[in-house]
Design a protein that fits this description.
Length: about 300
């Protein structure tokens, strides 16, 4: 590519790392000239409040999309799990890159792993998905919200506010903070969020030239697995205030999709869980598996749970 590509990015350390990572890939694989355009989003301004209460995931992507629409940038790099299930008209998610560690991490200055936490310990975490699964594993624990970017969350732990915190391993690893991870949850025990650990590239839907260039960066196994995961969320209504987990794992061409849905009111109802498997080699099969998983959750009574979110 001869033209310069401008990447619109949030200015958190994690977002900048991700944008730099994609910049290096584009320079290396496409011999492109790339520049970053840093922006503060509405989501960043209110990072200390529970996002689901103030408008949800879209808050992190809207300003970036405006920059794309106005031609100030051509590409936006997102943590896939922060991207709404359906993008606004005029935008497209054209590439999903190879996934890093999708697991949730246990971070503590006092305890080696989740099992070592004493009765009644105080755990900080930032998503309803983690809250409902932690409560399900250990009803004795006290779970408190923990917001802010990764550095803020670690600082709150270090100030002694919590016995342990739980957050995505991928974010810590990207920021060079892997040594803070005391242990990782098995994905069966703490099912990750749809798309966790993967990066998604968004462009204007009419930018066919760039779409073609970016196609070379797609990691097909990650793309298919995360499409199945996101299909579960879409089929259940797609709200980010929903305590929903969805994670796909490969064994050859077999995709095993594990899903869990919790009730948003603490202790109100048991966690609903399902595991489905299918041969998946193309998009329609991935989407069908995701839809089946959503139906399986509905068969367990998901409607009551969704009505409460
Ligand atoms: N919701 C914030 C967010 N968005 C992406 C990551 C980490 C990287 C990833 O999961 O891909 C995080 C931090 C976290 O959930 O602990």
């Amino acid at each position: 590519m001869t033209e310069k590509i401008v990447i619109a990015t949030r200015e958190s350390r994690l977002a900048l790392w991700q944008a730099e990572h994609v910049k290096a890939l584009l320079e290396d694989k496409l011999q492109a000239q790339v520049e970053l355009l840093g922006m503060t989003t509405r989501g960043d301004q209110i990072l200390d409040r529970t996002l689901s209460k103030v408008g949800g995931k879209g808050l992190f992507v809207k300003e970036l999309e405006t920059a794309l629409a106005e031609g100030r940038a051509r590409l936006a790099v997102h943590s896939l799990k922060d991207v709404p299930m359906d993008l606004p008209e005029g935008f497209a998610l054209v590439a999903i890159l190879e996934r890093e560690d999708p697991r949730d991490a246990f971070v503590s200055n006092r305890y080696e792993n989740f099992e070592a936490l004493p009765q009644g310990a105080l755990v900080g975490t930032s998503s309803l998905r983690r809250v409902v699964q932690l409560k399900n594993l250990r009803p004795d624990l006290r779970i408190e919200p923990l917001r802010g970017n990764l550095d803020t969350r670690l600082r709150k732990l270090d100030e002694g506010g919590y016995d342990a915190i739980v957050l995505a391993a991928a974010g810590l690893m990207r920021l060079g903070l892997a040594e803070r991870i005391r242990s990782r949850f098995d994905v069966e025990q703490m099912i990750p969020c749809a798309g966790q650990g993967a990066l998604g590239l968004e462009i204007r839907a009419d930018d066919a030239a760039l779409q073609q260039h970016l196609a070379g960066l797609i990691d097909t196994p990650t793309w298919l697995a995360t499409q199945a995961e996101r299909a579960v969320s879409r089929a259940l209504g797609g709200s980010c205030s929903m305590p929903l987990a969805a994670h796909g794992r490969w064994h050859g061409e077999q995709l095993t999709l594990q899903v869990a849905l919790g009730h948003p009111e603490e202790n109100a109802k048991p966690l609903l869980k399902q595991t489905l498997q299918a041969t998946v080699t193309q998009l329609d099969q991935a989407l069908a598996l995701g839809q089946q998983a959503a139906e399986a959750l509905r068969a367990l009574g998901a409607a009551d749970y969704l009505a409460a979110t």
